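User: Can you help me understand a structure? I only have the sequence.
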Amino acid sequence: MMNARAAKKLAQAAAFGGGGLGLIGATLYGVLTAEAEYAKRVIGPAKAHPAKGDGLYGRYPGRPITFAMIGDSSAAGYGTSSPDETPGVLLAGGLAELAKRPVRLVDVSRTGAKSVDLAGQVDNALLAGPHVAVILIGVNDVKSQVPPSQAVRLLDSAVRRLRAANCEVVVGTCPDLGVVRPIMPPLRQIARSWSRRLAAAQTITVVEAGGRTVSMGSLLSEAFRTNPSMWGPDNFHPSVTGYAAASAALLPSVAAAVGVGPESFVHPESFRGEAVLPIAEAAVAAAKTAGTEVAAAKVAGHDRGPSGRWAQLRHRRRHPEADVERVEEPSDQVADTGDAVPVGK
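Assistant: Let's start by predicting it. Here is the structure, written out as tokens:
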């Protein structure tokens, strides 16, 4: 059973360079390693790479918001047949509609990427001077047997580099591996426990680094478990419907990160299960609850209490899917410098 102490211990191991095997158990890690090898054989290698949707979205006035999409096949939209179906384009269009500003998408994600690839992707993203970035990473680390603390440490570095460049960061945490069909019971239950613990550790690390997270595992698990249309042909990657569901979960937090949307300035509402908690408790709660955002918070002017950093737990309302078209940019358009752009009220 995952708890706040276990999640915090894994995050601390990542911060101090621990290997991570002792935190999840050598036996459990060995089981997952064997299961990952089996899943790789069943799923097979990627057969195609999705088309990128880089460009400007939204026919609105004003300086564009530059948005970077970073990560693995879940960020790239593996299995889609059109750029318009990828998470990057869905999020860029939705953000443009909420902000009433044009959004420039810079998609540096790559199918098959692992946490070790984040540094190069961040290098490329920073060339465009992004104002906000979404990171989706982690599944290929499991498939490639990357120690969890190493994966979390690499994610921490990526978030800190982006924040140092005045870029807001939203991380979709490790998905619930217990719903992946090639993983069979009883190992499916073990995979679920492992992925929730990793997701909680990612949350602690990302919030400490200045970003915010959205729990993807528990959010999508019920829908993916009961609705076959959420899965692509390989029963591992999402379908177009699945990517749309994930993007809808991320969009409210992306909008809030840049200060736009109806909930950007609303305090947590207790009747909706929102609260301010110590970060480890918030991380565990988020890993169990559908679509929960976790971000840094203050209590009585202090960002830390007796149990560590304060964090707010939010269940942001979804926005209708936007139908925002790509527009042509002037040929002399240059990339932003990365300076902060006030896009909120």
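Now, to help you interpret it: The mean pLDDT is 77. The two ends are 43 Å apart (CA to CA). Let me know which part you'd like to focus on.
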